Amino acid sequence: MTLKTTPSQRIGLYPGTFDPITKGHIDIIRRAVKLFDVLIIGVAINEDKGPLFSLAERVAMVEAEMAHIECAAIIRVVPMDGLLMKFAEDHGAQCIVRGLRAVADFEYEFQMVAMNQKLNSEIETVFFMAAPHYQAIASRLVKEICRLGGEVKDFVPADVKTALLEKLRAK
Ligand code: ADP
């Protein structure tokens, strides 16, 4: 699906697996919407990462959380497949948004930016430093904690916690 936009619109693309969406992701979105007219949240298929939730479930969860965000920007949640830069071009995004947690994220992101710049030097990547209280949150750890019976309410919204518990019970 290609998004119809006017040429003057500032369009950002926030890509991720969102398996599931966490309070850390939501914090980045709340801050990123201030920079754009349209923020596209690209939910990556990422089958090779063996996601717990299906693509449709992840998209639905992100969409449900976006209903709580009040902002002037338009937020669109779009399933994403293939090359990130191609997806950004097809959707008219001038900018990729990423979140940076501790040093572990930096190495990977640094390399990605270098490669993406080679593919299209017109598209910039902007990074938001993780908020100190969300710094430690990672979808992978949230799933692990929940699987082991730990409390995850500080890390994910209530609906996501319910979905996690149901999904893990069904496994
Ligand atoms: P990916 O598979 O692209 O890493 P994720 O859903 O894990 O997908 O993350 C998407 C983006 O959100 C990445 O830029 C990641 O660094 C960022 N992110 C994830 N968790 C947090 C957090 N707690 N605080 C800030 N940024 C985060």
Based on the model shown, name its key terms.
171 residues, alpha/beta, Rossmann fold, five-stranded parallel sheet, binds adenosine-5'-diphosphate
Description:
The protein is of the alpha/beta class. The chain has a single domain (11-170), classed as 3-Layer(aba) Sandwich (Rossmann fold), CATH 3.40.50.620. The protein has 6 helices and 5 strands. The protein has helices spanning 23-32, 55-66, 84-90, 103-119, 139-147, 158-170, and strands spanning 11-16, 38-44, 74-80, 95-100, 124-129. The protein has a 5-stranded parallel sheet, with helices on both faces. Helix 2 links the parallel strand 2 and strand 3. The protein is globular. The chain binds adenosine-5'-diphosphate. Adenosine-5'-diphosphate is lined by residues 15-18, 22, 24-25, 28, 98-99, 101, 105, 130, 134, 137-139. Adenosine-5'-diphosphate (ADP) is lined by residues 15-18, 22, 24-25, 28, 98-99, 101, 105, 130, 134, 137-139.
